[in-house]
Structures are given as structure tokens and as C-alpha cells.
Design brief:
Layout lengths: L7 E17 L2 E15 L2 E8 L8 H9 L2 H5 L4 H7 L4 H18 L3 H4 L8 E2 L2 E3 L4 H12 L4 E5 L5 H11 L4 E5 L9 H8 L4 E5 L19 E3 L9 H4 L5 E5 H4 L2 H13 L3 E5 L5 H10 L5 E3 L15 E3 L2 E3 L8
Parallel strand pairs: 5-6, 6-7, 7-8, 8-9, 9-10, 10-11, 11-12
Antiparallel strand pairs: 1-2, 2-3, 4-14, 13-14
Cofactor: Mg(2+)
Keywords: Isomerase, Magnesium, Metal-binding
Protein name: Dipeptide epimerase
């Protein structure tokens, strides 16, 4: 017989339209399906949102099924720490982990940052993504964004990338630039490609080579720091990244939640790596835990809600490229 007072974990899939289309080297999206996990206990409900990591073969349906697969364990008393071993890293664990943090904050009447032993969060400057396109399109998009977003992140594809970056620089002459190769420089001369971008003020290059082929960076001396994204999911990947990358991009959907993200950040700093904290396409509910993990990051890329046609209410505010949590809520 089910204990009526036991915690109840459920999941649902929500579809959110993208503002226009979000395009990277792997394709374009006109919507994103997010998965919302809810844990109800003692009259309170904690929520967490996750987006499937498509390059891991995840889908919204598989994420929701994985969450349903631990519902009995949660009802029988499995807590946030137990979930770290009951579930593998990935989007499903992220949603459940966030729901546990949210529920605990509501039960304690304290913000999640206080429960995590963190300092009160401050507003953060976030990058704004310029989708992959031809140079003229990217220049126009950069010009439209330049006055509102002082830090731009460019999606690249390999062939023609120098022309794309040059076009964005024409459109946004004063913006800071970071670029995401999305593994598309595999087989290319990474050091030469990076050297060609120096003139345009690029300050970071994400994931130049395919994950698993990081050895291609052995001996590469890049004049611009390289950042591991797909190559660094959680702490288990740090040893492979050290010495090949100068930074890692922490995404909670990869790491499996705020719990692992905070531990990964500490371990990465100990290994001498700089930090970026990023996100998948998501609503403000999805980036709320990441906002806490990003407080000490050198680069922040939490523009997921800005790329949607609409966001949750209340949601984060984005003013002049700076993001701040809603006045209502337990994350900020």
C-alpha cells in the first residue's frame, strides 16, 4: 500500500517555442521540449526543469521516463544525496536534483543559495548567442544585439568561420566575443584558426574538436583559451581536460544537477581551470540553479530564456546583458 504522506515525484514535458530559430552546427530548432520534475511532500511542491542532451541520445521522453523510474525510490525515502548514485549524470538527474533543492528551500523558508552554503547571489553579465548563419545574417543579428548585449557568443561550423567572426565584429565593434566551434574544428589546425581570430578580439573558443578526440589538442598552443564543453560533463572528465583546455563549460543538464555542478566547479578550480557556466535552451526555471553555480565563473552563458518566444512568469530579468532573478522565488 502506498504511503499517502510519502514524497511524490512526477514529471511532465512542456513545449516552448524558440524566438525565430536557434541554429548551431548540428542543426536548427524552432522549439524546445523541457521536462519539469515535481516533488510533492508535506503540502509543498519543489520543481526542477531540464533539457535533454540530444548529443547523448537523450530525448524529453527518455528524460521523463528516467525520472518516473526513480519515483518509487523517492517515495521510499531517497533524498537528494541518494539520487546522485541512483541516477547517472544527465538531464533527468538535473531535474530531480533541482526539485529537491527547491523543496528543501520551501520547507526551510530559506533561499536555495543559503542552504548550499553560498553567498547571496549578485546579478551577472551573460553572453547572448548569435546563431550560426552566413556572414551577412550573423552581422545583422550582431548589429541588432550589440546595443543590448555587451558579450556575444557566436556559433561556428568550421569552414568559413573567420568570415563569420569578421562579420560579427563589423556588426558589433565594441562587444566582447566568445565563439563555440561545436566540435567543428576536428581535423583543422586549431592553433592557426585561433591565431586568425585574434584580430577580432575573441577571448574564448569552446569545444574545437570532437569529444573523445581531445588528444588532438596535445601540443597545441592556442593564443586564445580553449574551453571544454562536450568533453567535460562532470568531475570524471576533468583529468582528460587538464592540460588540453584552459577552461570548462559547466552545464547542469550535463553534470546532473546543481549538487554535482558545485563539486565540479571546486574541483576544476583546484586543477587550475577557468569556469564558464552555460545552459541548454530552457526557461528561467531551468537556469535558476545554474545562476547560483555561475556566481564565480569567468564567463556566464545563461541566455536560454532570451532565445525563447516567451518565458515563465516570474522569470529572470535581462537588462543591458545583465541577468537578475525574479523578486519572487527561492533561487535568487
Amino acid at each position: 500500500m502506498t504511503n499517502a504522506s510519502a514524497p511524490r515525484l512526477t514529471a511532465r514535458i512542456e513545449r516552448w517555442p524558440v524566438a525565430g530559430a536557434f541554429t548551431i552546427a548540428r542543426g536548427a530548432k524552432t522549439h524546445v521540449d523541457v521536462v519539469v520534475a515535481e516533488i510533492a511532500a508535506n503540502g509543498l511542491v519543489g520543481r526542477g526543469e531540464a533539457t535533454a542532451i540530444y548529443y547523448h541520445g537523450e530525448s524529453a521522453e527518455s528524460v521523463a521516463a528516467a525520472i518516473a523510474g526513480v519515483a518509487d525510490a523517492v517515495a521510499e525515502g531517497a533524498d537528494r544525496q541518494a539520487i546522485q548514485t541512483l541516477m547517472p549524470r544527465g538531464a533527468a538527474r538535473n531535474a530531480v536534483d533541482a526539485a529537491f533543492w527547491d523543496l528543501a528551500a520551501r520547507a526551510a523558508g530559506q533561499p536555495a543559495w543559503a542552504l548550499a552554503g553560498l553567498a547571496a547571489p549578485r546579478p551577472l553579465l551573460t553572453a547572448f548567442t548569435i546563431s550560426l548563419g552566413d556572414p551577412d545574417r550573423m552581422e545583422a543579428d550582431a548589429r541588432a544585439a550589440a546595443g543590448r548585449h555587451p558579450l556575444l557568443k557566436l556559433k561556428l561550423a568550421g569552414e568559413g568561420d573567420i568570415a563569420r567572426v569578421a562579420a560579427v565584429r563589423r556588426g558589433a565593434p565594441d562587444a566582447r566575443l566568445i565563439v563555440d566551434a561545436n566540435e567543428a574544428w576536428t581535423g583543422r589546425d586549431v592553433a592557426a584558426e585561433a591565431a586568425a581570430l585574434l584580430a577580432y578580439g575573441v577571448e574564448l573558443i569552446e569545444q574545437p574538436v570532437k569529444a573523445g578526440q581531445d588528444h588532438l589538442l596535445d601540443g597545441v598552443v592556442s593564443p586564445i583559451p580553449l574551453c571544454a564543453d562536450e568533453s567535460c560533463q562532470d568531475r570524471a572528465d576533468l583529468a582528460r581536460c587538464a592540460g588540453r583546455y584552459a577552461a570548462i563549460n559547466i552545464k547542469l543538464d550535463k553534470a546532473g544537477g546543481l549538487t554535482e555542478a558545485l563539486a565540479l566547479a571546486d574541483a576544476a578550480r583546484g586543477a587550475g581551470l577557468d569556469l564558464m557556466v552555460g545552459c541548454m535552451l530552457s526557461t528561467s526555471l531551468g537556469i535558476a540553479p545554474a545562476f547560483l553555480a555561475a556566481q564565480d565563473a569567468r564567463w556566464v552563458d545563461l541566455d536560454g530564456p532570451l532565445l525563447l518566444a516567451e518565458d515563465r512568469v516570474p522569470g529572470f530579468s535581462f537588462t543591458g546583458g545583465t541577468m537578475a532573478p525574479p523578486a519572487e522565488g527561492l533561487w535568487g
